[in-house]
């Protein structure tokens, strides 16, 4: 559809809200009736997105208490639009006149001004990372629906590299096999391997002090997906996941399975049977095997923002993990509904 | 939208056609009136997509003569849907009963059957690469519109790696600076540097003889784009280009600007000013600078298809180049129309 | 969606073709796999749409043989887009230069020229009634799917008034109760009551000779619909049926149940229990009872077209009947798929 | 699109909210930047929708103070989604257990339960007339945009019949010529002719006392529209206006121009030149002439609701007027944006 602030065709979420406006919100149209609505899950997901838990990540201190305005009654969804908002409280008294006069380097301030001629220059308006609150709220509802239908499915996202520091292939595999979401969110940098987590924390604290920032890599794993998700041709599930992930700020690459590493592979070896080579997808459709994707992030540009030095995020990946997870659930929810339409069997 | 065979919201193309059915086609809804329609450009674009020009790529020998069924009158578009078809002629007498009984490994045959319960098993049906004929036809019309509005814009796509053989950074830069589409399409493997082209051709001929296949890398460059293309939040131009490219079969990764290489970059260096670091996009919107993207492809799976051995494509990238170009034009056309709606200035 | 030539959200049809261009066509995206495809039904529906069967209606003598280009294999739909075209053959040698210079009064020629600046002036281009060929083809496929799921459902459309000549309430009721589609299509004027049919035929023959034309009324009845069709708020089934019918040329009104006659009704009487008062719809959703709608048509404007005098249609309703039926099936097909998404029960 | 709670393709509004839930709201996606946002107009439009102004109409006593949550900054729209909510306050302590056990006759309670299996039975949930608050808020923003682009355009809606009491053709014409929106909203029953207004008020007071209700007729007039609005084939402006109006509860008919009265007209007379015969539309596109539509409403079913007797609305038309107006502005806003895409002239 041409609506720019809508994601998903059947399980559709429209998001709204400026960084320093009154509220941020998400309205979900297309969630069927009868989904058990778990407000504590929603609150937990929002907490896990929250910056400000540590010195490692910067950010505002917002309680982010979600208010469900519609679509839920007596603990279940009604099949009507589900609107959820959080109000902005901590609107720091930054010198916005500065920003107004000189757009921040590396940010979207000037391209927005070129496009819209009138912008909310306070803290990036809608180009701020704060926009992702809406995605996490919607993703939480998507998760409720998908897990009600497919109880075994799970989505794991974690950080596998910051700057030169990276997990070994073996460490990644062990996370895929054994880590739980709690393992991941218990790490400030979303790396569920203790010593690596510690090393990255130290790197980032130093970077923060020195006015440095790093790029990084996130992994997303979908375990026990149903088969048949994805629509051939333009809406292959890999294509839509890529759109979902690259719609997040600071991302600049995505691959699946062996991805860019498969470029130099020889076909006879590549196709010799390990599922992970394909990343759980064939012909754009899930096979029921585990899906594996990687998303790359560029170094945060706030390093250039003199006004923010010392308060900037030295690497965006730890904050992006819960957003990647949310976008994954939104894609899964949409394709779950789409697959209901594929076959003419019964009504 | 939920239509699975439509790409683009405002400049929308619906494609149809099975590999061994009567015809393949594209219907474009949303092309404005008054675009000069250049049938010879369309024919040329189809020729450049065509496999079968050499021993290096396999494929059917189809004339692919486009028939324009509607939407064009006296050399100009009418603002009504533009339907274009090509008829299938060369429907090789492969032993389809074989395929019917045993889906080809690595292909989508079995996942389609799982999803749809009834499939056209002859040559992959709609999961065949032949489907891209429709994309190239639609991309050609998109190019006509975009170039009429922005005469300086150009799109270059070329192959920069096959297996271990790759262009140096310097060679890539020289192509970005100086190569023309003709330079690219004059190379059978779509590498506009003579000796590298020769080496890759030899590699692929050998692979073909030996039943081997390789992955590869394609680059897409957009020169002189207008600024303001891309819609913030979910429809950032990087996100939609990624969807466009990963909707092509055998792709498994996309990045832009420094992409995956920026993971290990330090922020102070990364943001020191070279446009190519950002890939011509900020905040999801074009800045007017050159856009650079890379797309990775896995080794072709037809290497596993015993029936096809000796006739298989040893690397898909050469055949994918014109499809990547077409998808790029479709994205540009759609965002060109979308940007008309951004500002309330005049009617 | 913003696509102007698409009808339906899930069972979506994109139509194309100019009156005097090479072909007219419909591409259906969203028809599930496994629908038994009945080509003879499609051909029959096209015959029933065809003008030229008699002196009463004008029109070209086109065979309208449908060609199915994709989406059907071994007698069943594949779940891929179904493209169907008919080629134009009889392109009468009217003096198009006349029309080019002076747009026909009452036609859309001049408003199209104002909007698009460039038009196909031959026979109205896409504003011609010939465009409805595409609707009938798509409606035929919709009917195949809906009847496979709900074998008892039927759609009846017939003419109930031409000028001052109208059926009595009792005659309408008897048709609703007992008439079959064959009864209707056996009447040249689509009135399945012999003497009334005869009277209207005579009226129209006289009108044709005298250069006169009449408005008229059509009825559409849906018998044995499933309940639960229709989506509350903006996509109430009454709203979407109204859009469907008023998208047909020359229509200028639609009502359902008692419709305009209920304006003067008293509530205590109106709500005293006869289903037909509601027209089978409550809250925008089907109740399982019979739906009844009426559509009004203005007198044909071709009466003003000096060039056509003696060859004009003296009343459009007889030709519109099969188009109303087709649009009804399209709405039913779309809502049938939509209702699959309402409840979260099972996968 | 398949989203059921969205109206409009380019100027799109998603609405949410149950009658007795926390809030009702509208989010507009697609309003361009730079529209002067007039909060006092929004408040005024909401006041004009409000029931409870008199004995003639029933309803809750809600202040309906709109809160703009996003999309507006320093008095102008940003081009980002505009979210507006009103909170529900007056949630009457009706005996909902009664409703839960026995769905109200003539209402949508039972059809919703059939479709969704789980409903908010308090006051109709989302099938309540209270849902129209969202429409009026969105329509108000649409009006701001359209009037900024076309300052001369105006929309008038008024009541022209209640039960047997109706305005003469001459009275209707005089309203079309001379009445202002204030004239209309100053009448409790939205009839800007003093004695007729008085007579209808008396009729309705009596009906209320006697437990009676009436159907009625509303008129909608668009004066000084731009030409070129409307998209041929499926999105003719008449078709989309019909959908818009019939998406309002209790409506059961719509016509335009002479509408149902033209059925018996002879063509030579009908086409003799008076614009109003066509209702300002030709080929589905505005000609720049005045548009005239009529919408019929059935008698309110709350007359059957024993619990509400004495508090019911004896006729819905007076309350529907501002909703018809809002829907008209939404259609105009959407087509205004669509027409920007019709022609390829400049960028």
Task: Describe the fold and architecture.
The structure is a homotetramer of 347-residue chains. The first copy, chain A, contains ten helices and 15 strands. With 347 residues, the first copy, chain A, is of the alpha+beta class. In chain A, strand 9 (154-162) and strand 10 (165-166) form a beta hairpin. The mean pLDDT of chain A is 90. Chains in contact: A-B, A-C, A-D, B-C, B-D, C-D. Chains A and B meet through strand 1, helix 3, helix 8, strand 12 and helix 9 of A and strand 1, helix 3, helix 8, strand 12 and helix 9 of B. Strand 12 of chain A pairs antiparallel with strand 12 (251-256) of chain B, so a sheet runs across the interface.
SSE inventory with pairings:
Four copies of one chain form a homotetramer.
Chain A: E1 6-7, E2 12-16, E3 23-29, E4 33-36, H1 39-49, E5 67-68, E6 72-73, E7 76-78, E8 82-87, H2 96-101, H3 109-116, H4 132-149, E9 154-162, E10 165-166, H5 169-178, H6 181-185, H7 194-210, E11 216-223, H8 237-246, E12 251-256, H9 267-270, E13 281-282, E14 285-286, E15 291-297, H10 317-339
Antiparallel strand pairs in A: 1-2, 2-3, 3-8, 4-7, 5-8, 6-7, 9-10, 9-11, 11-15, 12-15, 13-14
Helix pairs in contact in A: 1-4, 4-10, 8-10
């Amino acid at each position: 559809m041409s609506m720019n602030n809508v994601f998903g065709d059947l399980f559709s979420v429209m998001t709204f809200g400026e960084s320093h406006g009154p509220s941020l919100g998400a309205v979900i149209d297309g969630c069927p009736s009868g989904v058990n609505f778990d407000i504590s899950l929603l609150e937990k997901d929002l907490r896990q997105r929250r910056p400000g838990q540590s010195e490692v990540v910067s950010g505002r201190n917002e309680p982010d208490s979600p208010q469900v305005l519609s679509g839920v009654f007596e603990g279940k969804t009604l099949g009507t639009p589900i609107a959820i908002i959080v109000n902005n409280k901590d609107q720091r008294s930054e010198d916005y006149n500065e920003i107004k006069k000189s757009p921040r380097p590396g940010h979207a301030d000037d391209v927005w001004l070129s496009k819209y001629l009138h912008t909310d220059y306070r803290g990036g308006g809608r180009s701020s990372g704060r926009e992702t609150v809406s995605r996490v709220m919607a993703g939480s509802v998507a998760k409720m629906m998908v897990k009600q239908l497919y109880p075994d499915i799970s989505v794991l996202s974690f950080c596998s590299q910051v700057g030169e520091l990276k997990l070994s292939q073996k460490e990644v595999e062990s996370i895929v096999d054994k880590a739980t979401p709690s393992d991941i969110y218990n790490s400030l940098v979303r790396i569920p391997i203790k010593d690596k987590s510690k090393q990255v924390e130290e790197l980032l604290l130093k970077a923060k002090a020195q006015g440095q920032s790093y790029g990084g890599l996130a992994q997303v794993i979908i375990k026990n997906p149903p088969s048949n998700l994805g629509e051939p041709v333009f809406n292959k599930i890999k294509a839509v996941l890529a759109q979902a992930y690259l719609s997040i700020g600071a991302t600049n690459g995505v691959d699946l399975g062996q991805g860019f590493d498969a470029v130099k592979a020889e076909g006879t070896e590549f196709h010799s049977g390990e599922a992970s080579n394909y990343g759980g997808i064939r012909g754009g459709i899930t096979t029921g095997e585990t899906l594996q994707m990687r998303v790359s992030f560029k170094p945060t540009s706030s390093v250039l923002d003199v006004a923010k030095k010392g308060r900037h995020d030295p690497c965006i990946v730890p904050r992006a993990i819960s957003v990647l997870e949310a976008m994954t659930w939104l894609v899964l929810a949409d394709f779950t509904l789409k697959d209901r339409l594929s076959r003419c069997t019964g009504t």
